[in-house]
Amino acid sequence: MRFTKMHGAGNDYVYVNCFDESPPTDLPALAQAVSDRHKGIGSDGLILIRPSRVADARMQMFNADGSEAEMCGNGVRCVAKYVYDHGIARKEILQIETGRGILTLKVFVARGKVDRVRVDMGQPILKSAEIPTRLAGDQVVLVPLDVAGRELKVTCVSMGNPHCITFVDEITDDLVLRVGPQIERHPAFPKRVNAEFVQVLSRTETVLRVWERGSGETQACGTGACAAAVAGVLAGLTDRKIVTHLPGGDLELEWTSSGEVEMTGPATEVFEGDWPDGRR
Fold first, then answer.
1. CATH node for 2-121+266-274
2. Which residues, at least 6 apart from 213, have a Cβ–Cβ distance to it below 8 Å?
3. Which of 55, 80, 84, 208 could link 105 by a cystine bridge, Cβ 3.0 to 4.6 Å?
C-alpha cells in the first residue's frame, strides 16, 4: 500500500490515495499500526483520500487509537494539497467531502506546489446538546467544570467534532498532559472531547496547546484552533480575527460576520513510502 506522510503545522497524518490504492478492510487496526511512532510510520492518525460523488474528493480519518473522527482542520488542508499537487483536481478552489459536510478550500501555490490553504470550516455548533455536552445551559461559556481536583471555567464548541476550551494565565505540562486526558473522558462529554488550553496574549493573538481525543497532545489542531477562536469571542477575550501560535506553527483564524470560521495555514508533504501488505 502506497502512502504519503504529510503535516499541517506539525499535525501529522499518514495519507492513502484511495483513487489508486485499496487499503486493508480493518481500518482501525491499520490506523493504530501506521501511527505507532516506534514500530510504524509515526503519525497522529490515518487519513484516506477517497473518490466522492458530490465533491472533488472525500476525506475519511482515524485517530492514532483507531477511533474514527468527524473532521480535522489541519488534515483537510493537506488533503487539498494532495488533491492539487497529485493532479486529482488541479484547481484553485476545491470541494472536499468530510464528516462535517462539504468544505470549500482555496489553495495558494508557489513554484507549482501548494504551500498554504484557506479552508471555510463552516459555522460553529454552540448548542450544548449538539456538541454534545451534559454541562448546564443552552450554550456553555465560562461554565465551571470539576476535573482532576480543580475547578476550571470552560467554553464548549463543536466544529464538527467536540472541543472544551479553557483560558489560562499560563499553559503548563500539568494542564495539558494530566488534566487534558481527564477532560477528554469526563462524564460531561458523552462522545469524549478535545481539550484546548489557551493563553491570550492580546485581542488578536493567542497561544494554544491541545490534548486531542484519541491521539494525545499534538503539535497543532485545526478544529481546536477554530473552536478556541470562537470561544475567545464568546468569552469577550479576543477579536474575531486572530493569529494562534501552536507548538507546530501558526494558524490565521477569522470568525466572519456571516458566521463561518475561516482558517489559513501551511500544508507540507514530508515523504512517500510503501506499507507492506498484510501488516496491521
1. 3.10.310.10
2. 63, 67, 69, 161, 162, 184, 192, 193, 194
3. 80
